[in-house]
Amino acid sequence: MFGILKPKVYVDSICNIDLKKLKKVKNIKGIIVDLDNTLIAWGRKEIDSKINDWIKEAKRLKLKLCIVSNTSSKRVAKFAEIFEIPYSSNSFKPFNSPFIKAIEILNTAPSETMVIGDQIFTDIWGGNRLKLFTILVTPIVKRDSIGTFLHRNFEKIIISFWLRRGIIKKEIGNWPK
Length: 177
Hints:
This protein is of the alpha/beta class.
């Protein structure tokens, strides 16, 4: 039930993803990443130094990154410029088009591309529809836009059900092991 919403991996933070191992084990070359509550706390302007280090490590490893966000262009453009990575804003995730556009920007095959995000109804659903490798992260902060807030309650119920039934597990520490 709800298989299209189920992430391949569930971690606390994007920083728990070991990029070097990921690249080697999964042959990932491109990463589509959400902005709010995945890279940056929702509504905030500050960048956590650990996130910045993670982005730098991805670039050092020659992993291609693209921000895909449903957030306004101005906010996404600001952070994309700081991180020096391409972006797509006002994306209407989980529709296919923003993910297809990002794959084209990254110039990677779907089998070499992953999606990292904090929402199962946008990031994970959209990535799974295109058979991309999906990673769900715990939102950085509990605060959200009103539209996201409405989805969060359903997400909590589904994730709790999956965890209780052993359908998914939350990885502790760095992943992959």
